[in-house]
Amino acid sequence: MTATTFDPQAGYIVTASSSFVEFNDQVFTSFYQPVLGPVAFSLFYALKAQLRPRPTLADRAMQSNLLAQLNAGNGQVIEALHRLEAVGLIQTYFQHDEVGDVYVYELQTPLSPEKFIADNLLSILLLEEIGEEAFERLVDQSRQYRLASTDTSLTNISHHFFDEFHINSQSITSTPQSIVNARNQAPVEKQPSLTAGMATDFDWSTLLHLLANQPVVSADLEHNRELILIEHQLYGIDEPTMKKLVLRSISLKDNHFDPQKFKRIVASTYNVVYTRPAKVAEKESSPIDKDNDQLTSRDRQLLITAKDYSPIEFLQDLKAQTGGYVTSGERHILTRLIEEDKLQRDAINILTWYVIGDRGNSTLSANFVDAIANNWLRNGVVTGDQALIQLKTFNKQSQEKKTQPLKKKGGRKTINEPMPEWSKKKESELMKKASSQEIAKLRERIANRKKNKRRR
């Protein structure tokens, strides 16, 4: 059994990785808070406050307590939890036992500033969120205790371990059992991978061929391969365009590829606020299956565009029609959908079109997008064609429900009673004053009724 939603009636406990003793509040606040948002930031500290030595499943508390403590709705907490999982700060586990459902939230140690900056996904996300100037200030702050002087001839004269310490040589060749036991009980932990399972259609060999005769150190490209592929996946950058971006990121001093400069160039190139009108369906692309009679010519044209655009580019062009722009939260939603690698790119674009173009919403909402994506996956929808057909089916069913008469609750039969004669008369007749003869007759009938009652 698996769980996909945050159930307030389920139990939970909080654990942490062994390295969590290194947790640093300042690093967490400076580097993670801008990308997490207020609810996720608060949720992490709420869970951290629940840490207890040697927790067991019997120590579970109700998740409804978290909702009350955070003063947030169920949907907000779900989105916050997903964000913490996505950046590698929480690993969530679930099981159902005789007591009921229980979640185990294992807190992970935030990356150090240098590792955060070196991580391609996190550093790009932070750069887009706070801007280049604030990002550079944060980098300088994290390196404030380094030696500022550059023109030195310093030599490392530090002593080595065996210069000062001596241990039994036999213990080196034959590890003591207590150490073996400790290692077996707690194997070396690895930081959760943020890009595990991420697929790509980028032709790496083509990029290397395009850069073969260019002034760039080839080893730098291989070292930064993940960064380049992530930027391709996020913005749909093709190989010739990537070549231009890489060349703009080369240091003129030594021809080395500068990954930080590359991130800034890509962010400034694709994070555009549109103020001019644009059309979303003018690119040519691969042909669409014309045998499917459920799709109109307009549907097929939309699918051509959905297949030809990257998710960010597609959303940017949609926003261009109303003068809007892509928010950091929307980029996070699309990045997460791409990383999960369950919906194809054209299906993600159809989802975006439905929320922004068809329903007229101003922004993508994580809860709404997740609800649609989960519904599609549950019904086997992964491609753009299937997504459009699913939307058509849903709209048709909704229209049929609107036209159906409402059913009486409880299955009761409708009782048709004859209407009284007075109800059929016009209002003017009902409001007309009675004549003196009619009043006399009425008084006589009342007097007769009283006489009959006395006789009984």
UniProtKB/TrEMBL annotation:
Residues 398-437 are annotated as: Disordered. InterPro entries: DnaB/C_C, WHD_DnaB. Residues 422-432 have a biased composition (Basic and acidic residues). Residues 17-244 form the Replicative helicase loading/DNA remodeling protein DnaB N-terminal winged helix domain. Residues 315-387 form the DnaB/C C-terminal domain. Belongs to the DnaB/DnaD family. This is DnaD domain protein. It comes from Limosilactobacillus rudii.
